[in-house]
From TrEMBL:
It comes from the Bacteria. The keyword Nucleus does not apply. This is TrkA-N domain protein. SUPFAM superfamilies: NAD(P)-binding Rossmann-fold domains (SSF51735).
Amino acid sequence: MLILIVGAGRVGSAVAKQALEAGHEVSVLDQDPLSHEQLDKDLVDTWEDAGGRFTVGTALEVDALVEAGIEQADVFIASTRGDNTNLVVAQIAQKRFNVKRVVVRVADPARAAWYAEQGLQTICPTQHAIDLVREAALAPVA
């Protein structure tokens, strides 16, 4: 299974390493060539020696997505810092390239909910934090 991850920051690189360790083929696309260091961090060898792929390019450019392997991707994960970028490239993966499973990181809870209704699997760390606060508020005080 090929997993294509856009964004090689802390989240994207952590997911990429776990997926590679689990035996999946993993390709990472990021516009910053230095983000490759996140992928190499804590590895004995380089990311590529471990079996990963890394492409430097802008995720909003179809050529960069194709170079990174979107046409063969079974899973697409958008994990950049920008909600707008994540949402646009996730829709491109879903609608133009027919990737079977598309996961998108969205910080804004309202947008995450709306895009989830449109068929994207959204992960919203902000909503998760809100839910934890609500749970804590409802918990009985000892």
